[in-house]
Amino acid sequence: MVDKARRKQIRDEFRLKVREEFEASLPMSRDKFSGLFDNLDATLQKEICKDDHSLTIWFLNLIGVDNPGDVVSWLIANNGFCDCEILANVEDQFNQ
Which of 27, 28, 30, 71 has the fewest CB atoms within 10 Å, counting from its CB? Predict the structure, then answer.
């Protein structure tokens, strides 16, 4: 039988591995994602989501991301199917 301390260690190791895999999958820096989330939050308070990634692509081009298609593909793979869903579904993954 695994004792409580060992179960906690296994859980912590698993969480660390998941976190490391998440970090390795990012197609751009956390700082750029933070800027994207902030920009989407501010913009979507004034505009309605068009059910696409137009605001995201605009921002990625503005900050000079050289692989916006890869970033959008990553966002879609992580449940960011449009600009508002990026905030609703993806941003929380950065706070875990």
Answer: 30
